[in-house]
Amino acid sequence: MKALLLIDLQNDFLEGGSLAVPKGNEVIPIVNQIQSRFDLIVATQDWHPANHKSFASNHKGRMVFEKIDLNGLEQVLWPDHCIQGTVGAELSDQLDARPIEVIFRKGVDPDIDSYSGFYDNGHRRSTGMAGYLRDKGVTALYVAGLAADYCVYYSVLDAIAEGFDTYLIENATRAISDEGFQLAKKEIIKRSGTIVSVL
Ligand code: VGL
Ligand code: ZN
């Protein structure tokens, strides 16, 4: 079983969004085009309460993109984004969401961030996605979406650790920082993940 995992294709990460990833919109037509090649498609949705501690706005005197210690973990402070129930948190209406079997929501706990679709950043709580995929008989997992150097990257690392044959679809992802993405790709390869391009 070959599955496609679509990370955070939400309005706030796209053009005009509060945490827009440069050229993020370019991945959507690619994703729409490749979906039919997979046996199963799942997605994640960043889904924060307004008081989430990854938001700079919830730390007096702190600036966006500053790094702080949050309960023992390094945390980048982000602009408010993907607040539960807002338009910014919705999947893009340009995305063909019909083939998506299930959506895993993450980042719900205000005290810890969750980049990966599998676990929070402290690896404390599981979203249940690994078990779901295993129950479906998935062995190969292809990952696409946003952002390449954060949520896609950490999802790929967890997918590898969970034992899936893991592929990052490089032309169906875009990064917040290109240096960050170069380092991410090196680490993925080092951990026996595979970088592919489709079309
Ligand atoms: C993401 C930063 C904060 C992502 C989510 O989807 O990559 N990045 N929350
Ligand atoms: Zn977030």
Summed up:
The chain is of the alpha/beta class. It is 20% helix and 23% strand. It is globular, with a radius of gyration of 16 Å.
Q: What do you see in this structure?
A:
- The chain is α/β, with parallel strands linked by helices.
- It has one domain: Isochorismatase-like (Rossmann fold, 3-Layer(aba) Sandwich), CATH 3.40.50.850.
- The chain is built from four helices and eight strands.
- The strands form two sheets. A six-stranded parallel β-sheet has the order 5-2-1-6-7-8.
- The protein starts with a strand and ends with a strand.
- Bound molecules: pyrazine-2-carboxylic acid and zinc ion.
- The site of zinc ion has 6 residues, from loops.
- GO terms for molecular function: metal ion binding; nicotinamidase activity.
- Pathway: Cofactor biosynthesis; nicotinate biosynthesis; nicotinate from nicotinamide: step 1/1.
- It comes from Arcticibacter tournemirensis.
Any low-confidence stretches, pLDDT <50, length ≥5? none
Say what the CATH topology is: Rossmann fold
From the coordinates shown, what is the CATH architecture? 3-Layer(aba) Sandwich
Oligomer designation: single chain
Distance between the termini: 20 Å
- How many structural domains? 1
Give the fraction of residues assigned to helices.
10-25%
Overall average pLDDT = 98
Strand content: 15-25%
Bound molecules: pyrazine-2-carboxylic acid, zinc ion
Which shape, going by the Cα principal axes?
globular
Written as H for each helix and E for each strand, in order along the chain, the element string is EHEEEEHEHEHE
- Counted beta strands: 8
Side by side, the strands of the main sheet go: 5-2-1-6-7-8
Radius of gyration: 16 Å
User: Structural class of the secondary structure composition?
Assistant: alpha/beta
